[in-house]
Amino acid sequence: MQPGSRAFLSLTFCWQIALMLCFPYDFGSFITFGTRNSTSLVQCYSTSIKSDLFSVLPITRTVTFTPRMRVRHIRVASKNQQKLSARIVEGGINREPSTPISIVLTSDYGGRLSAEVEAFCGTIAIARKKMSSQLRYARSLLLLVLVAVIGIVRVQAQPPNALSYPNVITFGSFGGSICYSNYITAKTLTTVTTRTFTFVPATALLYVICYNNLRLHPFNVQLVGGGLGSTTQTSIVLTSTTGKLVVSCDAYCT
């Protein structure tokens, strides 16, 4: 072995002895950023750093991550007997979510760098997300209830005398539940305007009512095809002689 190599090894050995005597290793030492005084914090990031190479000089590594929630507390712990230091060089505690955070880890006295980094986030974002989900569910439920109520109101047959409109034409005996409904509004250059509603009732057709609330625009109605009592295709033919046809028709079945 060359004299220079022996001198280098001796220097390295003396350096390590001096570190052990003057700067004793702190087993399980750790560095924290922020406070962890709330049980509502959850771990949102964790990683381990390990350097297998032994060095007489400080070893430095950088950990970078992007949290989805606001980071409240960061803990850096040594996993061996090496003394380490840590500092945040980008981002930080209580920054806006999606802001990258970079932490530089250093084994102050060389040796091997082995550490674990943990980040803990507040659950405010989780609560807001859960509340938003609950609001969406409540809105959907309210919409379903509203649709159901409208459906119930629509399927309840209305007798002719319940309509105070000036133009009402009915066929058959009032009863059953609504099985078809349609509306037309048309304006033409000719005096006579005709339109047709065609449908196939699922059950026997009992009652048809057509109406509008325009006193100056009366109309005529004819049932063509299957008609009352049938389950075959039925057409409601609407005719106006004023050049404007505005009519609503409801059909009721058993």
From TrEMBL:
Regions crossing the membrane: 6-27, 137-157, 163-184, 196-214
Record's keyword terms, sorted: Membrane, Transmembrane, Transmembrane helix
Domain of life assignment: Eukaryota
Name assigned to this protein: Transmembrane protein
Organism (species): Anopheles farauti
